Amino acid sequence: MGGLFVRKLGGAAAMALQFQKLMPLLMHPWEARWKNGHFRPLLWTGIVANVLLAAFYGSYLADLSNAGADGLAQMFIIALAIESLVILSYLYSSRNVKKGDAVVMKDGKTPNSIPSRILARTVAICSGAVALIAGRDLFFPGEILDFIPRDDVYLEWTNAFFHSPPEGTVEAEGHGMTTALYIGDKFLSQLMAVNFLLLCLFKFVSAFGIRYGSDGSGEIKSRMIWKAQFLGNGLILFLFRLFAPAAKSASLDLRWHLMCLAYETGILALYSFL
């Protein structure tokens, strides 16, 4: 069941990541203007996300080729490269941005202020925790973080001990000779982690990397990202709720994960649509 959870959650994170790039372009706010550069933070972050995702697929090409499954990964890399080049060409050709009219600053804001302090704190706490766990799953799979309650249960339930058992442990003695057989599970687990990290990257950029600006454009730029993140969070939250009973049967309590994601999703909705 844990392996199914990783596959489903990884698919949801991948959908949310691609939706993050599509939604602002197809259904952007009426006040968003291309000539004013409102889409530039989204597009620059999209290029970084594409490069990192393509690099991850590239790191697994040898293993995928050995299994005869490298064709789809190569198609993904080519598609991401073409998309990045198109975005980059647009950004270069439209680098002369026209600034909007100055607006009256309210609530103690200045042109250098972040769009929302409350949302920034929420992202720092909730997405910071997600980035910590996803970073471990990507760079140090199978390593137990002692300060996270029941982290060993999480790793066992998601089959991390099968493909990446920590050295010198009982799991390493029991599964050390068969880890190569679970390379596919490791790939999916790390792919899920990459997608979560890239989703967190968009949130961090929208919360901390964009400034309010003298024309108030920072809020417009951030809201485009927040709306897509709200829908992506909603999908991920649904999957966590769906697998909560199965995780509980394995002594893994997902209630704290659900509360954290639900709170961040609510704050994103509040500042995106109100």
Q: Unreliable stretches, pLDDT < 50, 5 or more residues?
A: none
Q: Sheet with the most strands? A: none
Compute the number of helices: 11
Give the termini separation. 39 Å
* DSSP helix fraction: over 70%
Principal-axis shape equals globular
Account of the protein in words:
With 274 residues, the protein is mainly alpha-helical. It has one domain (2-98, 115-273). It is 71% helix and 0% strand. It has eleven helices and no strands. The longest helix is centred in the C-terminal third of the chain and has 33 residues, at 217-249. The mean pLDDT is 90.
Defining key terms:
single chain, 274 residues, mainly alpha, globular
Brief overview:
This protein has eleven helices and no strands.
